[in-house]
Amino acid sequence: MDFHTYTTTREACSKVGLDDAPDAFYQTALADALAIQSAQFFFQLNNERDWEKARRPYYNVWPSIVPMLTRLNLDLDSALIQLPLPALCVRLPKQSNPMTFDWRGQPCQIQCIMMGDMGDGKAISVLIDVGEVMNNGLADVPIYTYCNFRRQDGLTVEQSLAGLGKDAFSDIGVQVPSELVTDCVRLCCSLCLLDNDPSVIEPDVQGPG
C-alpha cells in the first residue's frame, strides 16, 4: 500500500533553488518566524528541523486500524502521552483512507500528521497536512492545520482534546472539520501509547534521499 509523505518547508524551497544546508536553512527560517511573530511557523520549523535530524521517523497507519484508534476513550492523564522521539510523522494511506472530508464540494483527505515536543514537554504541537500549498513569493510551501495538545498532571487526554478549540486552528485555506482534527490528535495519542510496547508498533526512518 502507498502512503503519503510529508514535505518540509526546506524541501519545498529546494525545488526553486533555495537549497541551503539544513542547519543554515533552519537558522535563517526560525529567525524569520520570530521576526514576523508567527508562533505556528516557528514550531512548524522547529519540528521539521528535529525530524530531519532524527532521519525522518514515521508511522505508516493502515486504514483498517484507524477507526479503532480514533474511537478509543482516553480517560487517562494527559502527562502519560509521551513522544518516543522529539518529532514524528504519522503517514496515512493514499487508498482507502478513512480520514476524509469535503471542502467546498471537493474531496480532501488527511495525508500526514507531524507531532513535535514543545514547551519543555508541556505540550505536543500537531501539524495536519491535507496536501495544500501556498506561494510565499519564492516557492509553493505547504500549509497545515495547527493545534497544540496540552500535557498536564491532572488533566485527562479527553479534557485536553475537548480544549483544542477552533481558535487554535489557522483560518488560511482548507478548513479541516473540528471533529476530524480531534480524531487526528486522538490517533496520535493512541499511537504514542502503543509505542510503549515495541512488539505492537515501532517507528521507522526514511533512508538517505
Give an account of the 3D structure.
Helix 2 (22-35) packs antiparallel against helix 3. The chain is an alpha+beta fold. It is 31% helix and 22% strand. It has one domain. It contains six helices and ten strands.
Can you tag this structure with a few keywords?
six-stranded mixed beta sheet, 6 helices, single chain, two-stranded antiparallel sheet, alpha+beta, 209 residues
Give me a quick take on this structure:
This protein is α+β, with helices and mostly antiparallel strands and 209 residues long. The protein has helices at residues 9-14, 22-35, 39-53, 66-71, 157-162, 178-194; strands spanning 57-60, 87-91, 100-103, 106-109, 112-118, 123-129, 133-135, 140-142, 145-150, 204-205. Strands 9-6-5-2-1-10 form a six-stranded mixed β-sheet, with helices on both faces.
Please describe the topology of this protein:
Elements: H1 9-14, H2 22-35, H3 39-53, E1 57-60, H4 66-71, E2 87-91, E3 100-103, E4 106-109, E5 112-118, E6 123-129, E7 133-135, E8 140-142, E9 145-150, H5 157-162, H6 178-194, E10 204-205
Parallel strand pairs: 1-2
Antiparallel strand pairs: 1-10, 2-5, 3-4, 5-6, 6-9, 7-8
Helix pairs in contact: 2-3
Helix content: 25-40%
Radius of gyration: 16 Å
Got a strand count? Answer: 10
The helix/strand series, from N terminus to C terminus, equals: HHHEHEEEEEEEEHHE
Shape: globular
Work out the helix count: 6
